[in-house]
User: What shape does this take?
Amino acid sequence: MADTITNPTLIIKPKKGWQVIDFKELSHYRDLFYFLVLRDIKIKYKQTVLGASWAVIQPFFTMVIFSLFFGRLAKIPSDNIPYPIFTYAALVPWTYFANSLRMSASSLVGNTQLISKIYFPRLIVPIAPILANLLDFFIALVILFVMMLFYGLAPTPYAIVFPLLTILMIMIAIGVGTWLSALSAQYRDIKYTVPFLIQLWMFSSPIVYPASMIPEKFRFWYGLNPMAGVIEGFRSILLGTVPFPFKMIAMSTIVSIFLFVSGVMYFRRMERYFADVI
Amino acid sequence: MSEPVISVNKLGKRYRIGVKLEEDRSFREALLNTVKAPIRNFKRLRKLTNFDDNKKPKPLALNSSQSAQSDDTIWALKDVSFEVNKGEVVGIIGKNGSGKSTLLKVLSRITEPTTGCVEIKGRISSLLEVGTGFHPELTGRENIYLNGSILGMRKWEIDKKFDEIVAFSEIEKFLDTPVKRYSSGMYVRLAFAVAAHLEPEILLVDEVLAVGDVAFQKKCLGKMSEVAKGGRTVLFVSHNMGAILTLCNKAILLDEGKNMMVGKPKDVANDYFCKSGVKELDIDLSCRNIGDSIARFLRIRFINKHRRNVDILMVDKEFGIQISYQIIGKGYKPGPNFLISTQKGEKVFQSLDACSDNIFEKGTYESVAWIPANLLNNRNYVLTVAITTHNPVTIHCQTDILFDVEDNLNAVTRGNYKLQMHGVVRPYIIWETKIVSKLMH
Assistant: This one.
């Protein structure tokens, strides 16, 4: 309650250059954050027949098609485990990432009404859908565990880093989401770029093929695609396909931190113009 | 208690307005422009956030004319300075486009000022629109929480006031219905109920009172004056002079982004009427050369029934539109006519001089069109005056004039009713009411 009583003087004046994140302000608006995440979760499957099943249907049917064409017909190797679970384990983080990116990139333009009529820390807008999507991620994950039981695959001891990999995945989504949403406020090209970007990004990530297809000496650099590190990491710790890919994940972590920091900074720099240009 | 809680110092806000693109004159040019379009578009879009810093205007230069600036920017606010003390209720008035809304947007931190600074002491909330962030798919209950938190309330605050908000909105039965199934009245009532329970120390309000049904409007006005009496500071923009005069103890007049006057609401309102009156109700067009080789305008003015200039047009007073023009060419049969429309472009009515058909000698003419009392409402209109020939249809000269009709709270059309009367016109309608039979107890 103290924060509503003691109020330092608020100064409004033109700001210059880069802005740091105002954590104090973000924490003051944490209830709004909570309700916006809740809103994104609630409206997602309103007036749908299948509801939250969509969280499973999407990766599951992609898995079926991939298994048929890439696994059965194209005979792409799958690190000595059944192709369906091999690709599904990658599709769980990938579906989360792709959906988050799509929703986050369009979040500012979709909330124009809010941005031009009221003040609140703008960062909440692109981050809320990314957090809301976590629910779908965990539902899809439950199916993965069921499949692991079915195929008799057990997680490796490295599974304790699962939360860290999840955080890494969220950071990448926030990093790219803040970049794209801030850009889309000014350049509507982003709307057309995102589906295209997601498609290209999917095929440059180890989803239909294993990272072990990449020559050993390039694998560290393959980690430049941060989702490659995350996906390969998930497969390694949960299914034990390959030894834990330390180097690749280290590279992916560096790239993720860079994306996250630069995205948030760029967003903070541009947010003062949002209400004027959106 | 006269410590300033808001001090605004030399505030300025510059916007970039679109510049018309040149049209392609040939196929070759069109092709070339299509190829070059991405670069041009990028430069244009980039300029939205990139005000050329080399040509950055110094605060002193702000007063000089806009032509010194690059031609595609405008100053929505220029050198605005004022102070608001604790507990004051301040009304902001001015014509459309005078910067009222921009000022509120800057004060509520939605947009950043270009120059100057503002100091605010205390918890501030802004209400630029009712129902900001309402989601049609969510239920009334969910939207109360969402909207409340968007307006800056904490969850525990909303929990505490929840029952009060529901009672105020009168929608108990539909609390768990998605708001997309609400009638527009219910929607507004719920939205206003949430807003009315905000308890900031400083409240910024944009014209949100012109909503809902009559009974609910009264309730809202009541709530507003309650807020004002509660010692909180309120800043509000309104076209409703009645509300400003009754609720505020200070007023600020904005004109083309500059604050012209700060003072008692009555003085400021007078100033507003005088300024907007004299400037616009008598227009000399003789030097502007509007017209073709057949006819041209000399002067257009609004007159009262004694044929004198009027300062202010009232809903319940007859007035005349006097059009002076010259017919300088032969071969046509020109006559005056006008169209009154709203600023949104809805046509209200058109009128022409049906008897002028036989006058077409060269010379100077003067026509007066009498607008009866109790026809127009209190709002702004666009008057389009033209001199035209009907056969063949030819427009010789045409001009647009903005004018405001002001309300008289004693007007016969409103009786004791003090709120905004709706509609583009406000005709005097004869009512007959009588008691048919008395009810016995």
About this structure: The CA atoms of residues 98 and 256 of chain B lie 4 Å apart. Residues 77-276 of chain B form a domain with the Rossmann fold fold (CATH 3.40.50.300). The radius of gyration of chain B is 26 Å.
